[in-house]
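thread: overnight batch results

M.L. [08:02]
morning all. the overnight job finished for the chain we discussed friday. pasting input first so we're all looking at the same thing
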Amino acid sequence: MTKLYIKLKKLRRSLLFLCDIFLWSISFYLSYSVSRDSFSLLGNEKEFFLSCVILNICCCAVFYYFKLYQKMWRYADIEDFFYVEIAVVSSNLLFFVVVIPLGIALGPRTHILTMLMSSFLLFIFRLAYRLNRILEARNSPRFYRKRMLIVGGGEATFFVSKEIFKSPDSDCLPVCIVDDDKIKTGRSISGVKVVGTTSEIPKICDIHKIDTILFSVSSISPSDKKRFSTFAPRPI
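M.L. [08:03]
and the structure it wrote out:
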């Protein structure tokens, strides 16, 4: 069972592609059936299957154009999900433009339902995959994150903490931030609170049980950096 799971993990991109095809197809089938008040395809088999193939081709083309299969969905953020929704809308519009010259009259209701349903299903599927990856990492016996203090409350800290939170495999967990600009105290950056200034680092390390310190500011002197590093077992 474990070997099979490992093999499947190596085929993530192919499995994601096949799942997308299934979701596009099931979205179209449900929309087509609802629009015709019947879940039977008798008498409409040719129109349905031709339309379904065209839809899948349009969706594949647009998704590859947006490079959605090159993304690492286990590290996806809100921007990646936004691009999925844009791609779904674009592919359905392309589908609508393609079927009209072919004389396939599906009706606006079918097109709208297909777009809404495929948007919902693809979003939920990728969200579930992302959450499963996070839970998988956190439930791992080897999972332990070093409690990290970040020195500096600027733009660099925002991007660093964002990348750390995106990666469930990271061995560090940003716990708090210090910055000498007292106006920032009490505010949060990427969900991490600024708890004080650099002069309070010894006390903060003790209170928050800090394992490691990350210096995200260039203005700190080498001597201060060396001094602050002594307050955590593994400064970086």
